[in-house]
UniProtKB/TrEMBL annotation, chain A:
Keywords: Cell membrane, Membrane, Transmembrane, Transmembrane helix
Species name: Nibribacter ruber
Membrane topology according to the record: Multi-pass membrane protein
Segments passing through the bilayer: 23-44, 50-68, 80-100
Coiled-coil residues: none
Annotated protein name in UniProt: Cytochrome C oxidase subunit IV
GO terms under cellular component: plasma membrane
Subcellular location: Cell membrane
InterPro entries: Cyt_c_oxidase_su4_prok
Signal peptide start and end residues: none
From TrEMBL, chain B:
Domain Heme-copper oxidase subunit III family profile: from-to ranges: 1-248
Keyword set includes Cell membrane: yes
Family, per entry: Belongs to the cytochrome c oxidase subunit 3 family.
Identification of the protein by name: Cytochrome oxidase subunit III
UniProt GO molecular function: cytochrome-c oxidase activity
The entry's keywords: Cell membrane, Membrane, Transmembrane, Transmembrane helix
SUPFAM superfamilies: Cytochrome c oxidase subunit III-like
GO CC, alphabetical: plasma membrane
InterPro entries according to UniProt: Cyt_c/ubiquinol_Oxase_su3 (IPR024791), Cyt_c_oxidase-like_su3 (IPR000298), Cyt_c_oxidase_su3-like_sf (IPR035973), Cyt_c_oxidase_su3_a-hlx (IPR013833)
Length: 114, 248
């Protein structure tokens, strides 16, 4: 919704348009289902890298639905989508890099005298 | 030099600020970029959590035989297994799942408020904002309960080498495991809770403005949309906290 000039027509007629809520509730049920699946995996699978990868993938799916539909980013201009997505992707890359390198460095310092 | 007065005309050219390349208002853009910077804050927290966790041993034994010890990082569903009014019952992660559902629901009611704002439907905006405030406050109440339970601890506690018993948690020592576990719990969920609280305050402000007809007179409900962006971001952060603190 870029323009806010459309409201005058409602004021003249005095009638309010019908609510468009189907997409919103559909998104809600998808988010619930994904959370339920995560919850099930927490109890049905043994902890490990594979289970954690599933959690992370499902979390990213949930993030896409929240940002895309609830925050409306999916329906904004390409420029705004890239302006938000590119720093976010770089941030995730930074997080992974810091974790991998930091863990390696920590191990080598910790085990130096062993 | 002409002496006639010319009134200022709005700029319309491509290169003099006359168009909007991103088709979004200044306020909405700035909210997006603020939220990006906020994402960096929480990413720093999650990085710290990951590194602290990798510095400690993971629990190797069978899930049933898990005991609290500073030797290894605790298994979250053995720590967060309490539920209000069900004292001593082992319901792993049930309360956290409930909190997650409450926050996702509050996001839905927020979108409905924004949608009603687009239709200039004052009554609907009020209704959905009230629901959002209710769910947001419920989440804060749940977090208060979780914190007090985490701080008070269980009856058994953890027995130290000198025979004394630790109950619950503070920033120095806790019954669940290494001191950093409780520290990071307080910092990450505390920071997120502060964000939720700020969100509820903002929601109350725009609710009062809506009731007073401020946005109806202004001709648009963009302020509801901007606070909505903030609110969804808080929900988004919780999705990540839920995964990395409670599930992984």
């Amino acid at each position: 919704m870029a323009s806010h000039s459309h409201h005058n027509e409602f004021e003249q007629t005095g009638e309010l348009p019908k609510a468009q809520t189907a997409v919103i509730w559909k998104t809600f049920f998808i988010l619930c289902a994904l959370t339920a699946v995560e919850f099930a995996f927490a109890f049905l699978m043994d902890p490990g890298t594979f289970r954690n990868s599933i959690f992370i993938v499902l979390t990213i799916f949930k993030a896409f639905y929240i940002v895309g539909e609830f925050m409306h980013l999916k329906h904004e201009t390409k420029g705004l989508i890239w302006a938000v997505l590119v720093p976010s992707v770089l941030l995730i890359w930074l997080l992974v890099a810091l974790l991998v390198e930091g863990t390696f460095y920590g191990e080598s310092v910790f085990n130096y005298f062993k | 030099m002409s002496q006639t007065t010319t009134f200022e005309q709005p700029n319309t050219g491509t290169w003099d600020g006359g168009n909007e390349p991103l088709k979004a208002s200044y306020g909405k853009l700035m909210m997006w970029f603020f939220l990006l910077s906020d994402a960096f804050t929480f990413a720093a927290f999650l990085t710290t959590y990951g590194l602290a966790r990798h510095r400690h041993k993971a629990f190797e034994g069978a899930h049933e035989s898990f005991t609290f010890s500073t030797e290894w990082w605790p298994v979250p569903d053995k720590v967060f297994n309490a539920f209000p009014f069900f004292h001593g019952v082992d319901w792993p992660l049930a309360f956290v799942a409930l909190m997650t559902m409450i926050l996702i629901l509050s996001s839905v009611t927020m979108v409905l408020a924004v949608e009603a704002g687009h239709r200039m439907d004052k009554n609907d905006v009020q209704k959905w904002l009230l629901w959002t405030i209710l769910f947001g406050s419920m989440f804060l109440g749940c977090q208060a309960w979780e914190w007090s339970h985490f701080i008070a601890g269980t009856e058994e506690g953890r027995i130290l080498a000198d025979g004394s018993v630790v109950h619950g948690a503070n920033l120095v020592v806790n019954q669940y495991g290494p001191p950093l576990f409780a520290d990071l719990f307080f910092f990450i969920t505390g920071f997120h809770g502060t964000h939720v609280f700020s969100g509820v305050v903002l929601l109350l402000m725009i609710f009062i403005n809506t009731v007073n007809g401020v946005y109806q007179r202004r001709g648009h409900y963009e302020m509801v949309e901007k606070v909505g962006l903030y609110w969804h971001f808080v929900d988004l952060v919780w999705v990540f906290v839920f995964t990395f603190f409670y599930l992984v």
